Amino acid sequence: MPSGTILLADDDAAIRTVLNQALGRVGYDVRATSNAATLWRWVAQGDGDLIITDVVMPDENAFDLIPRIKRARPEIPIIVMSAQNTLKTAITAAERGAYEYLPKPFDLNELIRVVDRAMTAPRESAVPRHSVQDEEKMPLIGRSPAMQDIYRVLARLMQTDLTVMISGESGTGKELVARALHEYGKRRNGPFVAINMAAIPRELIESELFGHEKGAFTGASQRATGRFEQAEGGTLFLDEIGDMPMEAQTRLLRVLQQGEYTTVGGRTPIKTDVRIVAATNRDLRQLINLGLFREDLFFRLNVVPIRLPPLRERAEDIPDLVRHFLDQGEAEGLPPKTIDSEGMELLKRYRWPGNVRELENLVRRLAALYTEEMIGASVLETELAEPDFSRPTEQAPSDEPLSASVERALNRLFAQHGDALPPPGLYDRILREVEKPLFGMTLAATRGNQIKAAHLLGINRNTLRKKLKDLDVQVIRGLK
């Protein structure tokens, strides 16, 4: 049975009682207090094997006390609890040297597991890290359990250079997560460089990533630096990585394996020191099965996977997000607005196909176009009339023609951008979206037999070969 003394500091008597009983039942001796001064006296006397503390106490904030504790007792693990369930709290707890951060309310069994792990783990000296700057400007908003899990993962990653793969639907805030990893991590003093694979013509992606030499191709009148060189010492964010052409995937894999690259048209290897954060709204494993994404590259990028939940899975965060966007709009000169309780409930029931981006666009539109200071449900019903928010899910009829499916997909695409428009090159991107699975699945159906695939598609073999090359469709023969 576990044993040891736990020092518990929390201003809430009920929480102290519950934790005392729960930890006592599994064999720990608990000494509880309601203030930081008593906790510090116990620590200074050398008492206790582990500390569990709330952030806010009557006499001192725990984040101010923890560095003193770490200087006096660097080996003692500290578990921080807080009802201020924000990314700021999670990052600050990690930066101050806390062993773990638990948002209130928490599961008692989870707390006991964390305590057991901390009490049995090897004790290492911990040095508090640098304090968080501009804490009020954290990019991620939300206190839902789904976001708490993300905050805790991000807090653990801040002082590492591990490669991260962020997945999630369009509009969920993947670039915000990438920026948070950069701006509050060890590379914060370096550049943050983002590149969207879906917005760059395929023939220019390698030049964009790695740069090119003068005369490397038609139009290359002078040497140009690539995103890897621009991001040196910082973070390179590869957005929509699933749209990267196969030849660029091969070169990226080589960079990740060898830590160096060559420019297009160049011969001298260039060492690189960047942190890679990738993002996608597509199922990369499905693309791997279709031969459209390299499996070895996937495993190189997917070191730490983070899934961002769609807004419909964290509807309890909508009030906080709405207030944030209204405050943001007011700071930029838009009139002050509020949304009544009935309207807020309506927003929480809506499906949000465009996720947080769609919500932000709606809030800004409400602030700019409506004269009333209090926005009610009737206004929101009008704004959300298309698509129909009353449907729990958008399901296509089983006999729906392909053109109708494409039209629905385009409706969602334009809705995600609100009042703005998608990036240029929409025609080629849409055709490519349709052609890739068409050619990939046809080859899969014919087991890689290109003669049968060309016949099935109604095109000649030369056209098929050209399309396979242009679309980077990998041909795997003899599939069972």
Automatic annotation (TrEMBL):
GO biological process: regulation of DNA-templated transcription; regulation of nitrogen utilization
GO molecular function, one term: sequence-specific DNA binding
Domain Response regulatory: 5-119
Protein name: DNA-binding transcriptional regulator NtrC
PROSITE patterns named in the record: RESPONSE_REGULATORY, SIGMA54_INTERACT_1, SIGMA54_INTERACT_2, SIGMA54_INTERACT_3, SIGMA54_INTERACT_4
Family annotation (PANTHER family): DNA-BINDING TRANSCRIPTIONAL REGULATOR NTRC (PTHR32071:SF95), TRANSCRIPTIONAL REGULATORY PROTEIN (PTHR32071)
Residues covered by the Sigma-54 factor interaction domain: 140-368
Protein keywords: Activator, ATP-binding, Cytoplasm, DNA-binding, Nitrogen fixation, Nucleotide-binding, Phosphoprotein, Repressor, Transcription, Transcription regulation, Two-component regulatory system
Localization (cell): Cytoplasm
Modified residues (4-aspartylphosphate): 54
Residue intervals passing through the bilayer: none
A GO CC term attached to the entry: cytoplasm
InterPro entries in the record: AAA+_ATPase, AAA_lid_NorR, CheY-like_superfamily, Homeodomain-like_sf, HTH_Fis, P-loop_NTPase, Sig_transdc_resp-reg_receiver, Sigma_54_int
Pfam families: AAA_lid_14, HTH_8, Response_reg, Sigma54_activat
Domain of life the protein comes from: Bacteria
CDD domains, alphabetized: AAA, REC_RcNtrC-like
Task of the protein: Member of the two-component regulatory system NtrB/NtrC, which controls expression of the nitrogen-regulated (ntr) genes in response to nitrogen limitation. Phosphorylated NtrC binds directly to DNA and stimulates the formation of open promoter-sigma54-RNA polymerase complexes.
Gene that encodes the chain: ntrC
